[in-house]
Specification:
This protein is an alpha/beta fold and 249 residues long. The chain has helices spanning 15-23, 41-52, 61-67, 88-97, 113-125, 143-149, 164-173, 210-215, 233-248, and strands at 2-6, 9-13, 30-34, 55-59, 76-81, 103-107, 130-134, 158-161, 177-187, 197-201, 218-221.
């Protein structure tokens, strides 16, 4: 099996190794397919990845050569994060083991790896039990995220899910109150966070998705006293996380 490293990812290339990696249930970030490659086992690989909801990206043969450092990739490769993902159940179990009310951060399509890394760093400092990210339209646990987290990624549980609204439903079924951060919400200082809590932090430009916002128990906002109407996602997340810490202390 050809396995290499590139920009914080592990890489497996070659048709048979890639097919076995997909079949094994390994947490794969994306499948790379060279332009013009199709048929045979490649068709089977693409079908299997679609079935598992794995992101598929077409790249030039030269780009794939670069990723695979010249190895015989046969037109396909898969990338997977160096850091292992956990499940949402793992996060809830971890809070239970510590005999603490769950404290979870949900990143709704945070695409900037620096923002995700900064959120992870602050979350670890605040005693957050785990972070949830979506499989699509989100930064993955790559080297930039790890560097921005300044070591905190080694101690933080991160779950990657297919559907954020469905995950919110699951959390609510487990007694977790879900608070979405948005400028059209109730003042954060008025909220009693001394309960099982999940904070939803939205995309850097679009904010929280419409369906995600509808699933939240309550929308909370930070006061904006200047001429701009929003904060960097990681800054807003940090303020809200420390408010949860303050209310629980």
């Amino acid at each position: 099996m050809e396995e290499r490293k590139e920009q914080g990812y592990n890489i497996i290339c070659g048709r048979n190794p890639v097919l076995e990696a997909v079949r094994s249930g390994r947490e794969i970030d994306r499948l790379l397919v060279a332009h013009g490659v199709s048929g045979g086992s490649v068709t089977a690989i693409i079908a299997k990845c679609k079935q598992k909801g794995i992101l598929i990206k077409e790249v030039s043969p030269q780009k794939l050569d670069y990723y695979c450092s010249g190895a015989n990739h046969q037109g396909v490769a898969v990338l997977f994060a160096e850091q292992e993902y956990c499940t949402v159940e793992d996060i809830l179990s971890y809070a239970k083991e510590k005999n603490q009310k769950p404290f979870i951060i949900i990143c709704d399509e945070i695409e900037d790896p620096h923002n995700l890394g900064a959120i992870i760093r602050t979350a670890e400092a605040c005693g957050v039990h785990g972070i949830i990210i979506p499989k699509r339209r989100s930064a993955s646990l790559n080297a930039t995220v790890a560097k921005s987290a300044s070591g905190a990624l080694e101690y933080m549980k991160v779950a990657r899910v297919t559907n954020i609204p469905n995950t919110i439903d699951m959390l609510k079924e487990n007694g977790v109150w879900v608070f979405g951060a948005d400028m059209d919400g109730d003042g954060y200082e008025k909220i009693d966070f001394d309960c099982p809590t999940a904070l939803v932090i939205g995309n850097e430009g679009k904010g929280i998705g419409t369906l995600t916002a509808k699933k939240c128990d309550q929308i909370v906002s930070l006061p904006m006293c200047g001429k701009i109407n929003s904060l960097n996602a990681s800054v807003a997340a940090g303020v809200l996380m420390y408010e949860v810490v303050r209310k629980r202390s």
